[in-house]
Write a structure and sequence with these properties.
CATH topology: Alpha-Beta Plaits
Structural class: alpha+beta
CATH class: Alpha Beta
Largest sheet: 8 strands, antiparallel, barrel
CATH architecture: 2-Layer Sandwich
Number of helices: 7
Number of domains: 1
Strand content: 15-25%
Distance between the termini: 26 Å
Strand order of the largest sheet: 1-3-2-8-5-7-6-4
Number of strands: 8
C-alpha cells in the first residue's frame, strides 16, 4: 500500500508462487497495514514489528500460509498520512483469515501477559511497564492507520528472489476510466509487459506485477503497476529500456500507444512512489 498515501501497493512482492503450464497464472493477494509512525519513534515501531507481528508471520510463512512478508517505508516523505507499511502475500482468502486470527490471538496473549505483569508489579509497589497496546499508541498515530487488500492481475517473478537483500519497489498508480479496465490491461500487457519481462530475464528486476484493490476502498486510483529491484540503479535501466522500446517504433505507432493509454486512464490522477524495504522475508531465507 497506501492508496491514500499511496500504497500499497509493497510492495506486492516477492513470494515463492509458481504455476505450471496446466495451472492458471498466479494472482496472489497482498494485505497491507500502513501506519503513521510518530517522529522519533521509528526505532520503537520497528521493535514492535519484530516482537509482536513478526513471530506470527514467520510461523505462517513456515506453514505455507504466508508466501512472503515485509516492512517498507517511502523514500519521498511528506506526501501522505502514513509512513510505513507492513505487507504479507497469500494465495487466497482463507489464508487471510488464518493470518488475521493468528495476529489477533497474539495480541490477546500479549495483553494477558501485560495484565499479569502489571498485577505482580503493583503487589511489589512497582510502577507497571507500558503494555504492548500502550507502546503501539505511543509509537503510532492510530487514527491514520489504513489497511488494504490487493490482488495481482499480472505477476512475474525472476529466478533471483533477492533473498537477503532489502529491495526497492516503484509503484505507478493510475485511475482507469469507467468501462476501460479490460482495454487498459490489454494495452499495458501489449506494450509495457514485454519490456518488463526482458528486465526480469536479464536480472535487472526481481519481479513485477499489475494489481488492483481486491476490496475497493478509494475512488482515487484503480490499478497500479509495480516492479522491484535490488538497488536504485535499476530505475535508470527501466527508464532506458522503455525509451529504447519506444524509440525503435515508428512515430505513428508511438502516437497510437500514447493515444490508447490516454483514452483509458485519467492522466491527472496518476502518481508514483518508491519504497525501500526495512524487512523483507521469503521462504528459505536465513
Amino acid at each position: 500500500m497506501k492508496f491514500s498515501k499511496v500504497i500499497v501497493l509493497s510492495m506486492a512482492m516477492f513470494w515463492a508462487v509458481s504455476a505450471s503450464a496446466q495451472q492458471p497464472p498466479a494472482q496472489p493477494l497482498t494485505y497491507w497495514s500502513c501506519y503513521a509512525v510518530k517522529p522519533g519513534k521509528e526505532g520503537d515501531f520497528l521493535n514492535l514489528v519484530k516482537t509482536v507481528g513478526a513471530p506470527v508471520r514467520d510461523k505462517m510463512m513456515a506453514d505455507g500460509v504466508v508466501l512472503a512478508w515485509g516492512l517498507e517505508s517511502t523514500m519521498l516523505r511528506g506526501h501522505g498520512d502514513t509512513t510505513h507499511c507492513i505487507w504479507y502475500a497469500m494465495g487466497d482468502w482463507s489464508a487471510v483469515e488464518k493470518v488475521q486470527n493468528a495476529l489477533n490471538a497474539r495480541l490477546a496473549s500479549l495483553a494477558e501477559e501485560d495484565a499479569k505483569a502489571a498485577g505482580e508489579g503493583r503487589k511489589k509497589g512497582q510502577k507497571p511497564a507500558m503494555s504492548t497496546a500502550e507502546r503501539i499508541q505511543d509509537a503510532v498515530d492510530l487514527s491514520k492507520t489504513k489497511d488494504y487488500l490487493t490482488r495481482d492481475l499480472v505477476f512475474v517473478l525472476g529466478k533471483d528472489m533477492g533473498a537477503g537483500s532489502l529491495p526497492y519497489t516503484r509503484y505507478n498508480f493510475v485511475k482507469v476510466r469507467p468501462g476501460e479496465a479490460a482495454a487498459y490491461r490489454a494495452t499495458w500487457e501489449k506494450y509495457n509487459k514485454p519490456v518488463l519481462d526482458k528486465l526480469v530475464a536479464d536480472g535487472t528486476l526481481l519481479a513485477f506485477g499489475l494489481a488492483v484493490e481486491e476490496v475497493k476502498t478509494t475512488g482515487d486510483l484503480t490499478h497500479f503497476a509495480w516492479y522491484a529491484m535490488k538497488s536504485l540503479d535499476g530505475m535508470d535501466k527501466v527508464r532506458n529500456a522503455f525509451l529504447a522500446d519506444r524509440d525503435r517504433r515508428s512515430a505513428e505507432e508511438r502516437e497510437a500507444i500514447t493515444a490508447a493509454f490516454l483514452k483509458e486512464i485519467d492522466p491527472d490522477a496518476s502518481r508514483s512512489e518508491v519504497d525501500q524495504s526495512i524487512i523483507f522475508r521469503v521462504p528459505g531465507q536465513k
